[in-house]
């Protein structure tokens, strides 16, 4: 079954000549703004990242950093208005999705790129059974009959390790526990065997013990299916386990991108450093927790220069004047800080 | 579910008794001589009055009268008019006509109201949205008899598109214009409620999920969005059937339809209290049954509503 899918999808369309980078999914200099009555909020200000088959990219950032909006733009579920894409590309197999017809984009959803959401209770339709919502994928997108779709849906519930999958087929979302609901959500998004899975804070709404189970399940499924996965989170602990690479976002920009080990060992941006330092540590028990002082910038009025400069302990006059570009600071890592070299090279 | 239904049916009993008693009491408490004008120009003979008083228990207090009435009613006997006509017959001829008219009105409400509500709820602030908002406000503000006479005159007399009145055969096609008149205010309310409900649910997370699944927009709206938005609309539609039937007096008058509106009007004018009570009692039943149906429909629409 997966062979059929791959052959269907790996053929790039006639317009897929973009840049022959061979990347599975690339976000290139994406810009999004929200036009509200109070003014224009520049939510995404030139985000660039990519994910390849079989790897997990973690997108890390505080609320309002634009990590979810980027994902919504990739999926084409950005609320317009108020959200408008003002520049950049989202290339899937080299083809810019932002310039595709609605019908072309729709076909990619679920089958090429699928998404799971933070709160499975509100993300699942309350008035349809969980089984119906999974089987719907097979019936509508694959044209299967009722019985076959049901069989496949139960098989999906099995794959996400829902006990008694057959019996739970006819349950409604509110009859599931939080963890089981998120499993059902995962089953639904993986039904069409997508090449990329975007997981938008998939464990935020769950108990800590359940969080670990869901992350393990996601990591396992990702490995088995060799999917590319974009894991959106604000939780550094979650990231360390499963991610291959990390992109840190701040005020709608990528401020640092690195391999997961290097990023933890030697952050090349003061914001990343602040994030790592603010994790509670047992060996510093009793001392006050370190925090990043100040608040994220108002996106309607981003400070000139580096958007992090008002909160940055290392800020110099240049930081208030020049926006630091995202530059290479070593093999496969980049940072948007005027003093990235100093940070990486300090001992 | 079975137990819930039984309990709901049992609850209907006191409500039914309470409402019917109130109606009975109010109607019989209307001042004036029930025999005035019954015997032409002259005063009715004492013998007649004595006979009728005996027959209708007019000398008893209202509780006894009501008890007698209910006893007969439970055996399917609505009693007789003062001119010895079976009230059951009057009800049996008038009700189907009104029901037919009310069903046409309800269908028009559902189709036009829901259609307009869905279209405008999905695209708010567009031309269509403003058109619907203004026209529904217009319909709500206009009294039914104005809508009725204007449409009758325009479509029936001036342009000759339809017959100005409805024939005694009550063909469905003849009922479209009267049905629209009867349901005009409700169409407007349904459209507005549906619009709000659709617009609210349009931004719901599960709609976003349905889009992210790559379902065609038709299915996202028609299956995922509509089902969740229908609950307030169904409430309005269900409870409206009773209101439509009770409110058909004006519409039936304008279009010459022989329904309960006319029957009740005639009965009130001629002080035929038993007829008034009989017709209204059936109307109460319609209300009660529709309310129960609406409650049962909720569960079909939203599985989170449980009947325990």
TrEMBL record, chain A:
Keywords: ATP-binding, Cell membrane, Membrane, Nucleotide-binding, Transport
Localization of this protein: Cell membrane
Sequence ranges assigned to domain ABC transporter in this UniProt record: 25-276
Membrane topology: Peripheral membrane protein
InterPro entries membership: AAA+_ATPase, ABC_Ni/Peptide_Import, ABC_transporter-like_ATP-bd, ABC_transporter-like_CS, Oligopep_ABC_C, P-loop_NTPase
Main location as per UniProt: membrane
Record bears the keyword Cell membrane: yes
An annotated Gene Ontology molecular function: ATP binding
Gene3D superfamilies for this protein: P-loop containing nucleotide triphosphate hydrolases
Single GO cellular component term: plasma membrane
The protein, known as: Oligopeptide transport ATP-binding protein AmiF
Organism of derivation: Micromonospora noduli
């Amino acid at each position: 079954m997966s062979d059929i899918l791959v052959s269907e999808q790996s053929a790039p369309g006639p317009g897929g000549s973009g840049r022959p980078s061979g990347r599975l999914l690339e976000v290139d200099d994406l810009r999004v703004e929200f036009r509200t009555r109070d003014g224009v909020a520049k939510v995404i200000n030139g985000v660039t990242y990519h994910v390849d088959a079989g790897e997990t990219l973690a997108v890390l950032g505080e609320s309002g950093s634009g990590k979810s909006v980027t994902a919504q733009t990739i999926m084409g579920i950005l609320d317009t208005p108020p959200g408008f894409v003002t520049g950049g590309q989202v290339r899937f197999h080299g083809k810019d999705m932002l310039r595709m017809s609605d019908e072309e984009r729709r076909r990619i959803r679920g089958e090429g790129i699928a998404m799971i959401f933070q709160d499975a209770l509100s993300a699942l339709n309350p008035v349809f059974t969980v089984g119906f919502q999974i089987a719907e994928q097979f019936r509508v997108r694959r044209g299967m009959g009722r019985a076959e779709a049901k069989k496949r849906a139960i098989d999906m519930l099995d794959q996400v390790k829902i006990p008694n999958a057959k019996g739970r087929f006819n349950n409604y979302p509110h009859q599931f526990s939080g963890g089981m609901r998120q499993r059902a959500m995962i089953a639904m998004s993986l039904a069409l065997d997508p090449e990329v899975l975007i997981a938008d804070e998939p464990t935020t709404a769950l108990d800590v013990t359940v969080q670990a189970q869901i992350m393990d399940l996601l990591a396992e499924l990702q490995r088995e299916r060799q999917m590319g996965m974009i894991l959106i989170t604000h939780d550094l602990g979650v990231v360390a386990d499963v991610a291959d690479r990390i992109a840190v976002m701040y005020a709608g920009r990528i401020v640092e991108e690195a391999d997961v080990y290097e990023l933890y060992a030697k952050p090349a941006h003061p914001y990343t450093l602040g994030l790592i330092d603010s994790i509670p540590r047992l060996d510093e028990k009793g001392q006050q927790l370190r925090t990043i002082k100040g608040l994220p910038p108002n996106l309607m009025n981003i400070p000139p220069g580096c958007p992090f400069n008002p909160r940055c302990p290392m800020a110099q006059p240049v930081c208030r004047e020049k926006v630091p570009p995202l530059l290479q600071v070593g093999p496969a890592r980049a940072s948007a800080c005027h003093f990235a070299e100093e940070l990486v090279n300090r001992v | 579910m079975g137990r819930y239904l039984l309990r709901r049916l049992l609850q209907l009993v006191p409500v039914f008794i309470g409402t019917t008693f109130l109606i009975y009491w109010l109607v019989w408490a209307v001042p004036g001589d029930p025999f005035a004008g019954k015997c032409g120009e002259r005063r009715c003979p004492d013998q007649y009055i004595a006979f009728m008083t005996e027959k209708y228990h007019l000398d008893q207090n209202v509780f006894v009268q009501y008890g007698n009435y209910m006893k007969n009613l439970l055996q399917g006997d609505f009693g007789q008019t003062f001119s010895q006509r079976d009230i059951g017959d009057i009800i049996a001829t008038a009700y189907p006509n009104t029901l037919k008219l009310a069903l046409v009105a309800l269908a028009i409400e559902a189709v036009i109201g829901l259609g307009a509500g869905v279209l405008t709820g999905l695209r708010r602030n567009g031309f269509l949205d403003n058109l619907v908002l203004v026209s529904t406000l217009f319909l709500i503000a206009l009294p039914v008899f104005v809508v009725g006479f204007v449409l009758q005159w325009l479509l029936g007399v001036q342009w000759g598109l339809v017959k100005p009145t409805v024939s005694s055969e009550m063909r469905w096609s003849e009922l479209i214009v009267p049905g629209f008149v009867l349901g005009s205010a409700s169409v407007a309310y349904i459209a507005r409620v549906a619009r709000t409900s659709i617009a609210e649910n349009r931004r719901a997370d599960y709609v976003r999920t349905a889009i992210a699944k790559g379902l065609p927009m038709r299915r996202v709206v028609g299956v995922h969005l509509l089902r969740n938005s229908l609950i307030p609309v169904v409430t309005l539609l269900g409870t409206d059937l009773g209101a439509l039937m009770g409110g058909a007096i004006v519409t039936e008058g304008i279009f010459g339809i022989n329904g309960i509106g006319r029957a009740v009007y005639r009965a009130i004018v001629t002080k035929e209290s038993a007829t008034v009570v009989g017709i209204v009692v059936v109307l109460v039943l319609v209300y009660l049954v529709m309310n129960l149906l609406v409650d049962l429909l909720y569960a079909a629409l939203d599985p989170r509503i449980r009947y325990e």
